[in-house]
Structures are given as C-alpha cells and as structure tokens.
Amino acid sequence: MDMHxxxxxxxxxxxxxxxxxxxxxxxxxxxHRCSDIQExxxxxxRRVLELLLEADGPLKAYDLIAAFGEDGEPxxxxxxxxxxxxxxxxxxxxxxxxLNAYVPCRMDRTGHAAAFLICDCCGAAEEFEPDFAPGRAAxxxxxxxxxxxxxxxxxxxxxxxxG
Amino acid sequence: MDMHxxxxxxxxxxxxxxxxxxxxxxxxxxxHRCSDIQExxxxxxRRVLELLLEADGPLKAYDLIAAFGEDGEPxxxxxxxxxxxxxxxxxxxxxxxxLNAYVPCRMDRTGHAAAFLICDCCGAAEEFEPDFAPGRAAxxxxxxxxxxxxxxxxxxxxxxxxG
DNA sequence: AACATACCTGTTATGAAATAACATAACGGG
DNA sequence: CCCGTTATGTTATTTCATAACAGGTATGTT
Lengths: 163, 163
Prior knowledge:
Two copies of one chain form a homodimer.
Chain A: H1 20-36, H2 43-54, E1 59-60, H3 61-67, H4 77-89, E2 93-96, E3 101-104, E4 114-119, E5 125-127, H5 133-141, E6 145-156, H6 158-162
Parallel strand pairs in A: 4-6
Antiparallel strand pairs in A: 1-3, 2-3, 4-5
Helix pairs in contact in A: 2-4, 3-4
Chain A binds a DNA duplex (30 and 30 nucleotides) through residues 1, 40, 42-45, 60-62, 76-79, 81-82, 86, 100.
C-alpha cells in the first residue's frame, strides 16, 4: 500500500514538523478548541496529536504506537486508534486512505472535506481545499445525501519531478 | 472499516449483479479488450472479474478468496490480490479505499478517475464520472504532476434516507 | 522440435492494520 | 456522595496484504 519508492532521497518538503514554541502553541490552541465545545483533549489524545504535528509527513498507526511512550515504551493499539478516532472526529487529523496513514489537519476552519496531493516518490502529502461543487451536483442528481468526502490525488511533487 | 449498519435491511439497489447472458457478454467483452492490447485474461483473473460482476455490491478481498473455487475451495490470498491488481491496472475494477473493497468498473471508457457515492447504511457504492477540473487546477498551482485521483463520498442513498 | 525468456501461477509463511470484548478508572451533574 | 457517562487499560483476535521462491505456460526464434 505504501506506493512511494523506498530509495527516494528527496526532501519530504511539504510540511516540516513543528517543534518548540510552534508545537506548544498548536497544542494549546487544540486544548482551547476542545474546551470550547466541551470535549477533552486527554493525555493519550494530546500525545498522538503531538506526534502527528512533530512529524514531517504522514504517520502510520503503528509508527504512532511505537513512538507513543516518551520512554520508548510502545502504546497498545487501541490507545492510538481511539485517539485517532477522536482527532478525526474533531477535525484535528485526517486519515489518508490510500496510505493507511494519518496527518494533522493543516486547514484553519473545521468540518471541511479532506483533499490531498500525495507524492508517490517522497511520500509527502499536502492538504488542499477542494472545490466539490461538481461532485455535490452529481451526488444530488442521484439523490444521495453526502456526509463526508475525501479526495486523494497521487502523483509527483515538484521536487521529485525535478530530481 | 465497514461503516454501514449491519442491521440495514434496505435493498442494495445501485448495481444488481450480472447473470446469465449479461455476465457472459461482459466477460467476452473483457476478453476482447484484453487481446486488443496484448494482455491475457487468464483463468484466475477471469474468475475474480466474474465474481465482482455477479455481486450486488463491493466485495472484500477475502470474500473473493472464499468464493473463488467453484467447488467451495477458497483461493490462496496472492491469487486474488494478483488478479485484482491486474483488473485495476486495466480499468476493469476499482478498489474503494474507505471500504477495503472492490467493485467492477461501471464506466465505458477506460483510464478515467474513480469516484464513488457510498451509502453508509446499505453499503451500496455507485460509480460516477467526476469533474476534476477544480482539483487539477489546485494540483497545478502547487506544481504537482497528478497521475491518478480517487474520490469517495460517504452518505446515504435515496432508499436509506427514506427508510 | 528444442530452446530461451518473459510472464503468470501455486504455495508457504509472515507481516501489517484494525478491532472485539471486557475490566477499571476518571469526570461531572444531581 | 452517588450514579451515569465517558475514557482508558489490557488481552486476544481478526482482517487485510505481501514477501519469497518454486514451478508452469504461452510465445517467438532458430
């Protein structure tokens, strides 16, 4: 499922991970957004979000499981999967289906549709704001009530086309 | 991952499976399309395509594995996964990432992007022809060279909204 | 026909991803 | 404080997918 070449040496340049003050600020912001809607950013949820924000690219669930403990102790799978479910539900993270991997949300507003440009060479995944007007029209024409939409475009990022 | 309610009793009405002459015709047509491009619709590939065409909705890989043998003997996983890879490559089938499931292609022309309306209640998956002009524009703006695009819209089909 | 070779299949085993089920603990309102 | 609700901890299992290699089959060439 992981389609990008293992030997690709290009920078995974789309989204360098957060650290230091940026990371702390993002986490505090998430706390606020949670308490505003009476949800709890508990320790395991916060830890998984932190790992996603620190990463340079999409992380697999078992990457998160392995990295979970500050001391190197892995988490149990349900711990991480539950946290991911929560983060997705609140719009703090997205699952990329075609990679079986997760990224923190890069968009300002919440509740949006998730759309990604995925580089098959370096593995970068760039979120963008899609215009789904045509898709919605097709759905309505067939009578569907659409609740969520995901779009995943695979190809090569600028750096990997050049290299 | 299988998000649709197990207790849903609605008809899975989008695409009743093929049978009899329709099925035979579809398989013969596939044979022709293969030989036209010097590809071989071998026995296991043909069998997997047949199972997909007969089905009323998306099939999981292990559904195909279990149903593979005419005599009830299951296939070995690689047999089915290889056939699916072939069928996808030639555009005879699509993988629906958010279901871990497969459907036969319902579109006339080949090489198109895959887009689905998926009912979370009855599990129906309806293929449609998306208009990706907006997405392509976004990709080009970021310098991506897009090779393939998949879109999956989750929601409720007309029957399940009514029921 | 004999051979080379490219492609496809059969088989065993394993790896990777996700969830079921149930027990325990923490929060928050009455 | 008590209880319902929500979240976590833990064990085990299920589901999904591929690696690796041996063996077979179609095809073109001489």
